[in-house]
Amino acid sequence: MQKKVTAILFLHIKTFFQDYSEKKGD
Questions:
Q1: What is the domain partition of the chain in residue ranges?
Q2: What span, in angstroms and rounded, lies between the C-alpha atoms of 23 and 26?
Q3: pLDDT digits (tens, 9 = 90+) for 4-14
Q4: DSSP label at 3?
Q5: How far apart are CA 19 and CA 5, in angstroms?
């Protein structure tokens, strides 16, 4: 269960950073 939660959190953080980078125009 814990590994699943960590994986989901990691995915959300990855998506967030990708979205952030796109908004910066890099």
A1: 1-26
A2: 8
A3: 999 999 999 99
A4: H
A5: 21
Q: Residue with structure tokens 């998506």?
A: 15
What are phi and psi for residue 25, nearest 5 degrees?
A: 85, 25
Task: Give the N- to C-terminal CA distance of the chain in Å, as an integer.
Answer: 36
Quick check: helix, strand or coil at residue 5? helix
**H helical segments located in the chain:** 2-24
pLDDT digit string, tens, across residues 15-25: 999 999 999 87
Only one residue has tokens 């910066």, namely 24
Tell me, yes or no, if the pTM score tops 0.70: no
